[in-house]
Amino acid sequence: MTHGHRITVEPSARRVRAAHGGQVLAESDEALVLKETGCPDRYYIPPRDVRLDLLTESATRTHCPFKGDASYWSLPDAPDLAWAYPDPKPDVRAIKDHLCFYEVEEV
């Protein structure tokens, strides 16, 4: 971590749900919440709690110097609405293969 930048990963105390167009894409009691300096809190949902049958992996890739390389997942009408880190940096290894959605609600 660079000076002044902090990331923590901890179990969420809440059930979370990600939906698009009225369809639930993920729902979990075992999400992890990642808190990162200067960023909104993000929920990373275990793949077993995600409707992977509805999502298609896209060609999009991004790099975060703190978390690693991300791959993205899409719906036909919502490109890159979720992402995952298949090989995250050691400090955030708990999020490996968990999916994160731009819009998640606590339920």
From TrEMBL:
Signal peptide: none annotated. InterPro entries: DUF427, DUF427_sf. Residues 16-103 form the DUF427 domain. Gene3D superfamilies: Domain of unknown function (DUF427). Pfam families: NTP_transf_9. This is DUF427 domain-containing protein.
